[in-house]
């Protein structure tokens, strides 16, 4: 009877033990799931918190804001025609300071992205900071952007050189082809990313300044006009380069020629990088012997912005010898008489008044001319002022 009672009790304890076991397994599984969930949540929370803190270190904290360094006065920009994805785990905040002045001229934007980004214009004309800045020498009054061959790696430029770190993402350029204008637009677009840049000057390695920095800066910043050379030239090297396929967007009477070495303000620079309507016509139809760098900007400016343009360039060039290229100046060509002639023996209008300062730059000067230029510059061009 005892054994029967024991067996009878065991029959009831088996289901009870199974219930306890299943209950234990259920709560154990719930615990694991909750642990994984909370662990994942707090990991994400730590990453997001780190991103916020990192953003505040890169920029001013919203709790304890520090005053931004005031930007420089309007700059003249020298444009010289010659990827790895960022980590996604930590993305620093792009604040006002980075928008006004990009930290580095290097970036991974395509040409299409760059032209779109650089064409943005602030609608609020008054900048959200005070313009109080003191300069030592001429620091901060200019920016330099270099478009070089993609294979060039800056290996021979010392860090103290003003050209160090100023090379923009570049593409190969062929003389006489439309990609020369693409390089110019690329330079302008990169320079427009810095909102303090107000005047834009295209130069080459063969250009020299004819006056000291203060004179050139004052002349550019105070001008109420742009300087894009544009004229109507009959004959095969002028009107003869027009293509009938360009009509009706660009007609033959609207066709113009001029120097590619321009000096323009920010408003016109924005129009140039934003233009697709007219430039696309040049990309399709301006092939040799049509040279886009001599016709696109003169034609575009004459059609759309003639009233704000002087019609001349500030870069002196000698075409008296004829041919497809201007005269070159070597070491023995450099004399005080030549430099004085380039500086003063002209007559033109500046802001509606007559002046003898008609050219701020000149070309083409070979590297061999450098020693004599440096010898004459301090006295004639007053580079020490």
Automatic annotation (TrEMBL):
Q: What kind of membrane protein is this, topologically?
A: Single-pass type II membrane protein
Q: Name one GO cellular component term.
A: membrane
Query: Would the keyword Magnesium be found if you checked this record's keyword annotation?
Result: no
Location in or out of the cell: Membrane
Question: Pfam families recorded for this chain?
Answer: Branch
Recorded GO MF terms: glycosyltransferase activity
Which residues span the membrane?
A: 20-42
Could you identify this protein by its name? Glycosyl transferase, family 14
Organism this protein belongs to: Solanum lycopersicum (Tomato)
């Amino acid at each position: 009877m005892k054994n029967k009672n024991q067996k009878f009790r065991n029959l009831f304890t088996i289901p009870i033990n199974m219930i306890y076991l299943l209950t234990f397994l259920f709560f154990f599984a719930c615990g694991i799931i909750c642990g994984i969930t909370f662990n994942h949540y707090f990991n994400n929370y730590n990453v997001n918190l780190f991103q916020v803190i990192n953003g505040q270190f890169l920029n001013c904290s919203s709790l304890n804001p520090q005053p931004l360094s005031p930007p420089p006065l309007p700059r003249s920009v020298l444009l010289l025609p010659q990827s790895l994805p960022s980590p996604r785990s930590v993305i620093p905040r792009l604040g006002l300071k980075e928008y006004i002045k990009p930290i580095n001229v290097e970036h991974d934007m395509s040409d299409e992205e760059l032209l779109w980004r650089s064409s943005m214009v602030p609608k609020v004309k008054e900048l959200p900071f005070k313009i109080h800045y003191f300069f030592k020498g001429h620091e901060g009054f200019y920016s330099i952007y270099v478009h070089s061959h993609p294979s060039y790696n800056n290996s021979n430029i010392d860090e103290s050189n003003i050209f160090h770190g100023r090379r923009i993402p570049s593409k190969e350029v062929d003389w006489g082809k439309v990609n020369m204008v693409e390089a110019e637009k690329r330079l302008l677009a990169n320079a427009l990313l810095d909102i303090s840049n107000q005047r834009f000057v295209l130069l080459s390695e063969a250009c020299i300044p004819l006056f000291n920095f203060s004179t050139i800066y004052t002349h550019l910043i105070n001008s109420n006009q742009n300087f894009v050379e544009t004229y109507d030239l009959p004959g095969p090297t002028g009107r003869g380069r027009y293509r009938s396929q360009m009509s009706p967007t660009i007609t033959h009477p609207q066709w113009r020629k001029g120097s590619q070495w321009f000096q323009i303000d920010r408003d016109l620079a924005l129009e140039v990088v934003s233009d697709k309507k007219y430039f696309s016509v040049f990309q399709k139809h301006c092939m040799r012997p049509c040279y886009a760098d001599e016709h696109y900007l003169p034609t575009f400016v004459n059609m759309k912005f003639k009233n704000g343009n002087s019609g001349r360039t500030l870069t002196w060039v000698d075409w008296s010898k004829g041919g497809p290229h201007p005269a070159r100046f070597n070491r023995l060509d450099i004399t005080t008489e030549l430099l004085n002639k380039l500086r003063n023996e002209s007559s033109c209008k500046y802001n509606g008044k007559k002046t003898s300062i008609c050219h701020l730059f000149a070309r083409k000067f070979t590297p061999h001319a450098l020693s004599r230029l440096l010898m004459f510059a301090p006295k004639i061009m007053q580079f020490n002022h």
